[in-house]
Fold this protein.
Amino acid sequence: MIKRSLIWGTLAVATMLTPAFAQDSTVRIVLNEEVDLLEPCMSTRSNIGRVTLQNINETLAFLDLREGGGLQPKLAESWEQLEDGSWRFHLRQGVTFSDGTGFDARDVKHSFDRAMDPSITCEVPRYFGGMTIEAEVVDDHTIDFKADPQQPILPLLLTLISIVPEETPIEFVREPIGTGPYTLTEWTPGQRIVLSQRDDYWGEMPAVTGATYLFRADPAVRAAMVATGEADISPSIAALDATNPATDFSYLDSETVYGRLDHSVAPFDDLRVRKALNLAIDREAFIGTLVPEGALLATAVYPPPTLGWNEAVEVWPYDPEEAARLLEEARADGVAVDTPITLIGRTANFPNNVEILEAVQQMLQEAGFTVQLQFYEVAEFEDLYSKPYPEGRGPMVVVAMHDNSRGDPSFSMYFKYASDGRQSGISDPKVDDLINRAQAATGDEREALWKELHAYLHDDVVADLLLFHMVGFSRVNERLDWTPTMATNSQLPLADIAFK
Amino acid sequence: MMSFIRKRAFASLISLILLVVAVFFLSRLTGDPAALYLPSEASEEMRRQFREIHGLNDPILVQFGRYVWDLLHLDFGDSVRRARPAFEVVSEAFLWTLQLAVITMTLVTVAAIVVGSMAAFRVGGFFDRIASLTSLIGASAPDFWVAIVAIVVFSVGLGWLPTSGTGSVWHWILPIGVLFIRPFGLIVQVVRGSMINALSSAYVKTARAKGVKTRPIIFVHALRNAMLPVITVIGDQAAALLNGAVVIETIFGFPGVGKLMIDSILQRDFNVVLAAIMITAIAIFLMNLLIDLAYALLDPRIRY
């Protein structure tokens, strides 16, 4: 009797003491990896950006990836290109940083110079390769950016620069100060980061008054946390766990899986072999099986809403007979089609990585290729993926995942396809010329040039083995009105979240 | 006794020095941190600057000399990834692991000794069969599976406990519960085996013949003698926990040293790896010393 009451007593207490999850105006967001830095100039790194971008630190402009969005003003009210090709930004007035200091053009200049400073290793400079940019303060609320060579997408490039106060030292900070609607109020390493709303924010006050960020590496745990109410949003859960239509959303996540071919190594120097490679893959068969439903078959290394997306380019059909015929034809002409090809993957690169590559290997073998499959850890993979490529490497198909959520192909094209691009497998004068011209062009001309390059690379050069535009899955508590977009991979503005 | 402790400390110091040398050079063999820390599109210039800032351009022996010098001043350097002192990062994480290990091993030791002793008292009896079966299952159940099932049942299904994280007493129950299972299964079996031997020995028969009651026979006469092999296994299991329960820490989002060490190895954050190895090595040395001393306490024949 006593024993039984003890058991029931314990259960009752346990039930009563179950953590009470307050239904309030704050949200809890569970990320897949601990945020180890909160440095504004590192906000291009996925989870850092999800915490800081547009929450703590703001940018001059931001890219709205929703239908009819485009580049929108934030800390700059407007901008224009001057006669000499440089860009002038007119800054918003009456904005203050969370430390109370006012925002002006000198802060913008300092933020840019700091992010570019070689004495701290910010991630931003990689997007500004092959150009020099000078920021020049005109007056308190006007700043010019002079680029050499001219940069038609400079306002877009500047969406990568988080604005910090002029006093910020040139070293990594752990307490970011910004103009955003939130400030960092608690950071317990390994456990949580808490942001609270400022009461002196310049813009419209978001509905969310505060946010707590938690970190769990296991996707099943992240999904369970939203299911139990311990968290409100998990930006990424596994496709396997996305079973509840009321809370789980899939979204095109701006990642593209493709196999990079090195055209300087036989037999990939032969167009017929490259075509055969593409015809041998039954891409459709992957969707809904190894690749989640909703993923798209790829015709470029960047996803569809990117500028200059060419609708007319069609996915390679699955035609093993034609692939075999092309291979035979090449063989008859003395092309070394029997050289063993190495299919190279990176361990744990994306879900079902191993199975997808095994299926690709089998499809290629059925078409008549000899294919070995090899997986490498990140650092070793990087040696094969980026130049200088190893000597005597033999033909390789390096299967990688590339992310471009920035709305313009220039963030991919140069280093993937230009003759001296770091991860390029081709050297084609027409491609180089198109890239240069497109990068220097604006408006409709820019769009037309990117379209032309899209089709040329896919249909004529047959540059690589394009596979899938991937989807991600998020789980969102039903009390929130928020759906993930392609931008969710890199940022999660709390102002976008509303309560039902 | 003091001379034994001194001798052990000296031997451990030599192991530690060898460890520092081996880990330093082996970790340099695993790849260039610049390749990993910087994005793949980073220019060669950025890579060179990164190596320059973090002293990775110097000859390896110069880097080693600098590392040893700093170490002698108890300076483990900064974490490249976190821009904080490596020692601070590691000691925070180690404190979590230490708490987890101490609580779990205390519970395991008490429970396993009681259950193992009772099972040994009537070999083949009902309690023995149940205890043996559960301990066998416990010792062989994969902990990642147990952890996920526990979350599904106790957090999502019943809603009794939080899924993961830290913050309240309730957060500790699932990780400790899951960590408890395997060492408990192992130690119950060792206690049971060792007790069966002890209980069939002549001194226990004598005690029974003299009319000593069951409880004192088990817990006073037999147990003390049966404890030596048990202590060894407890030491092994505790050492494994002190190294960090990587799987459990990962699943439950527990900020312990095991996950930190794995993450730092993958990120080539050398200073954190070295600091973590040094701190856990010292902890394990201290624990082994305690175990040696426990031997002497339990068995008067052992003298140092």
